[in-house]
Amino acid sequence: MSKFSSYNFKGQRALIRVDFNVPLNDKFEITDDTRIKATIPTIRKILNDGGSVILMSHLGRPKDGPTEKYSLKHLVVHLRKLLQGATILFAKDCIGEEAEQMAKDLQPGEILLLENLRFHKEEEQGNKDFAQKLAKLGDVYVNDAFGTAHRAHASTAIIADFFPADKKMFGLLMENEVASAEKVLHGSQKPFTAIIGGAKVSDKILIIENLLEKATDIIIGGGMAYTFEKAQGGNIGNSLCEEDKIETAKELLAKAEAKGVCIHLPSDSLIANKFSNDAETSTAPSNNIPNGWMGLDIGENACEQFHNVIMHSKTILWNGPMGVFEMEKFQHGTKSVAEAVAESTQKGAFSLVGGGDSVSAINQFGFAGKVSYISTGGGAMLEYFEGKTLPGIAAIQS
Ligand code: AMP
Q1: 3-state secondary structure at position 24
Q2: Which contiguous run of DSSP H or E holds residue 245?
Q3: Distance between CA atoms of 355 and 381, rounded to whole angstroms?
Q4: In angstroms, rounded to a whole number, what is the distance separating the alpha carbons of residues 391 and 377?
Q5: Would you state the pLDDT for residue 1?
Q6: Phi/psi-derived region of residue 292, left when phi > 0, alpha when psi is between -120 and 50, beta in every other case
Q7: Which residues pair with residue 329 across a beta bridge?
Q8: Average pLDDT, 10 consecutive residues per value, the chain (398 residues)
Q9: Beta-sheet pairing, 217-220 with 288-289
Q10: Cis peptide before 191 (omega within 30 of 0)
Q11: Which entry of 30, 88, 271, 349 is 20 to 30 Å from 14 by CA?
Q12: pLDDT value for 194
């Protein structure tokens, strides 16, 4: 049993770092509560044990201290709905006398939500005094915020120093995130296929480099594929290209060859005469796109090519769309990859999907329940697979 599951929280005040950085509309209503829902099992376990919960999070990027727009008070009503029956209190500042008194008075079964951590600039600075003031509020520190695990902020990493080893731990969400990522990175069954898409090569160089050590196959789709095509002498018309990354693309291709890792580029592309949903479209080999045209999705042959690779895989990691999936005309490739990942999972492969756009795609196309794990952390997941040590994880594990 995990450290969190075996811990008895009876009579304890658990200070949980959550990632409640959710999108809000003009009326301050939550438009996607995935991140909140993901931490409910952690909160429930503590309450069921007879403990109380203090929740701390950031919301948005407030630059100038307290601002109505970024107040966590907007989340209280929704949280009450999700945690029916629990008393939820709100502290107008995350540190200070009032928060301390409210934390002290908290009864078993009750929840105290603290105001936005980033209303204090010390949070992002990783300030020790600030971390100590936060630490005072709880008896046990639980980190359940994978989305911010790549930041060495006061509440995500520094705070852990103020708790003894037996009183700091991951929550259930964080445990699952770490276990799934570890399974892919260190315990992957082969063939292991990484599907990397999205707009820019520059954002994905480090992850490709690290995956060259782990994966057997790397599928490269989306806008970034054209820089690789050009690096091999292809004609890519007006498709997206990072001229200054052509050399890097060449190096990555050479490294892959030396290591025996198979890089799969889309054999054909759905091309358009403008970047628009009402563009004229046609298909062309991805290395022979006429001038004036741009590849905005992978083509039908590439869908089949990628489908075959994915179906032969035992481990699958997916980050980034295969085309401009926000436009209906160019979503077929991403949808078909999502479908293949789901199909392969059904046949026994372990699949992990992460990164904002691939997660929206998998949800949008209705395959969310058909993959093994969907990560809640975009940037954190990327850094994890780049092979970096995440401060939020190291702080608990050390
Ligand atoms: P990223 O944030 O790097 O993962 O990129 C995601 C974005 O890449 C999405 O907004 C897609 O619309 C965009 N994208 C994917 N394929 C292409 C393409 N062929 N040309 C231009 N943009 C693309």
Answers
A1: strand
A2: none
A3: 7
A4: 14
A5: 82
A6: left
A7: none
A8: 95 98 92 92 98 97 91 96 92 98 98 98 98 98 96 98 97 96 94 96 94 97 98 98 97 98 98 98 98 98 98 97 96 97 98 88 92 92 94 93
A9: unpaired
A10: yes
A11: 30
A12: 98
3-class secondary-structure state, position 68: helix
In this structure, what token pair is assigned to residue 381?
């997941």
pTM of the predicted structure, to 2 decimals: 0.92
Q: Give yes or no: 379 in active site.
A: yes
CA-based nearest residue to 54, from 148, 158, 159: 159
Cα distance from N-terminal residue to C-terminal residue, the chain: 20
The structural domains of the chain, ordered by start, are 3-170 (3.40.50.1260), 178-385 (3.40.50.1260)
Q: In the 3-class helix/strand/coil scheme, how is 183-249 assigned residue by residue?
A: HHHCCCCCCEEEEECCCCCCCCHHHHHHHCCCCCEEEECCCCHHHHHHHCCCEECCCCCCHHHHHHH
In whole angstroms, what is the distance from residue 292 CA to residue 251 CA?
Answer: 28
Pairing, β 268-272 against β 262-264: unpaired
pLDDT value of residue 63: 87
- Backbone φ, ψ for residue 297 (5° rounding): -160, 165
Query: For ligand 1, what atom is nearest to the CA of residue 321?
Result: 15
β-pair partners for 165? none
At residue 265, φ and ψ (nearest 5 deg) are -100, 155
Confirm whether 118 is a catalytic residue: no
CA angle 166, 99, 116 (to 5 degrees): 90
Instruction: Please identify which of the residues 200, 250, 314, 370 carries the catalytic annotation.
Output: 200
Cβ–Cβ under 8 Å, residues 374 and 199: no
Which residues line ligand 1 at a C-beta cut-off of 6 Å? 198-200, 203, 222-223, 240, 295-296, 320-321, 323-324, 326, 357
Six-digit token string for 59? 């919301």
Closest CA to 184 of 313, 270, 337, 18: 313
Pair of tokens at residue 189 = 């069954």
What gap in Å lies between CA 220 and CA 375, rounded to an integer? Answer: 20
Contact (Cβ atoms closer than 8 angstroms) between residue 134 and residue 154:
yes
Tracing tokens 């089949």 back to the chain, one arrives at 304
| Mutate-to-test residue for ligand 1 from 229, 269, 324, highest number of ligand atoms within 8 A of CB | 324
Q: How far is CA 3 from CA 96, 136, 151, 168, 397, in A?
A: 30, 22, 23, 9, 11
Sign of the alpha-carbon dihedral angle for 75, 76, 81, 84: positive
Q: How far is CA 265 from CA 185, 287, 298, in A?
A: 22, 10, 9
> CA-CA distance, 324 to 190, in Å (whole number)?
30
pLDDT of residue 64: 85
